[in-house]
Amino acid sequence: MEYFEFKDGMWIKRSSSDKARKLAELGAIIVTADLDDPKSLERAVDGADTMFLTTHYWEDKNKEKEVIRGLNAIDAAVHANIRHLVFNGSELVKKYVGRECAHLDSKAGIEEYIREVGITYTIIRLPFWYENFFTIFKPHKIKHGVYAIALPLEDNDMEAISVEDVGECVATVFNKPKLYAGKTIGLTAGRLTMKAVVEGFNKQFSNRKFEDPKIRCKDFERFQFVGAKDLAAMFDFFTSDHCVRDYKLTKKLNSDIRSFDKWLYHSREIIDEELKKD
């Protein structure tokens, strides 16, 4: 099992985590495995009935490596006769926006393999994560007390959710396998506009001012960091009609799913600490 944290502008692998330790204290058996080592994966899933699989692009920023690691995990699941696999997948973004989005297109390739091998599966597809406001899309200071929130939504909106709320959705899928087996589920807690984001931040942080810099996807694409073009393609897709997510179904899977405003209210301290680092 691999764990990651965002540090110094990138995601890095950790061998353990506070959450893993807390799970162990509750009686969970924590097994370490390497997605590059099929034998370690087979040992890790030996005796398991179900598997939740998510793959990670940003550590190596390599689409092919992510796909291979996903296929390794699926092969291990098949070898262990896993009865139900839930995978964090994605649409093939290139099909809809005409250019590559490596960190999502890779997951589309893994989805295809899952369907080929014949394992019982459920695919979940996530939208934009609220938690991105802790890290890569954290408001950045433009002058004392004034921050810009650089999301290239232009005048569009997009689906979003808290990652923390996804766990309950997945648990419900596992608890009702016959109902959700073979299905692809798009999760969301509702649609976000830049107006709602900026107003939400200004409401929760009265000692700071937040602004919309009116950034466009074609501007974002020109940023000089690895992954800028992929993220621009992602936003093009997220703001299109092709990104289909189901609020009613998400609410059925997790009745306590949080709106952006509610999540932001409960995340004020974390965001405040992040903003103080600027």
TrEMBL record:
Pfam families linked: NmrA (PF05368)
Key word Lipid metabolism present: no
Sections of the chain in a coiled coil: none
Domain NmrA-like: 16-240
Family annotation (InterPro entries): NAD(P)-bd_dom_sf, NmrA-like, NmrA-like_oxidored
GO CC annotation, single: nucleus
Keywords of the record: NADP
Family stated for the protein in its record: Belongs to the NmrA-type oxidoreductase family.
Database matches in PANTHER family: NITROGEN METABOLITE REPRESSION PROTEIN NMRA FAMILY MEMBER, NMRA LIKE REDOX SENSOR 1-RELATED
Protein name, entry field: NmrA-like family domain-containing protein 1
UniProt source species: Mytilus edulis (Blue mussel)
